[in-house]
Known about the structure:
Layout: E1 7-17, H1 23-30, E2 35-40, H2 48-53, H3 55-58, E3 63-67, E4 73-77, E5 81-86, H4 93-109, E6 116-129, H5 133-136, E7 142-143, E8 146-147, E9 154-161, E10 164-175, E11 182-192, E12 197-198, H6 205-224, H7 229-234
Antiparallel strand pairs: 1-5, 1-6, 2-3, 3-4, 4-5, 6-11, 6-12, 7-8, 9-10, 10-11
Helix pairs in contact: 4-6
Amino acid sequence: xxxxxxxxxxxxxxxxxxxxxxxxxxxxxxxxxxxxxxxxxxxxxxxxxxxxxxxxxxxxxxxxxxxxxxxxxxxxxxxxxxxxxxxxxxxxxxxxxxxxxxxxxxxxxxxxxxxxxxxxxxxxxxxxxxxxxxxxxxxxxxxxxxxxxxxxxxxxxxxxxxxxxxxxxxxxxxxxxxxxxxxxxxxxxxxxxxxxxxxxxxxxxxxxxxxxxxxxxxxxxxxxxxxxxxxxxxxxxx
Length: 238
């Protein structure tokens, strides 16, 4: 993704089945370098039986585990979900975030406490400060042959390519909590939930991480098809 500070947040997460509860993974996660600051989230106060039987709560995190690094890495842990996010100082997929994903999830999967992974997902939220992407990008929307690019718009696209689904939300005239100026937000989620990864002694780690990398490739492609060639060059995406 972009080398400049356009990325507000990047999140990779999984949904899984397990016979254990989230607390049993805390010690394993603490063994991953620098993830030691554990915070209980409000949902932790809800009884387990209620959480697991309510589809709106089942996949919500119970713990936030922060890294002591200068980069704001966080793990969000629930009974059926684990996510890794970075909120500032994003460097690159290959150099930093993907290796961090590999290290964390290899550690977790090798505990044998997860039975099956039902979904993998990757989300990038980018903010283009002081830009109206409907004017500067490759999107052209007309209503009754009238250009709408100067209007405040919210565009959502959902589709599937090569067995990977994606949701893309694009807004202009938006404000970010991190920025004072108005700009455009490009929020893209790529995910795979049409197959299960059975976790046993024959688990194929290479295939699993290759599928995660494919999420990133599609996510980046969906980003570059929105922005202009000049912006792609600026963000080192050409």
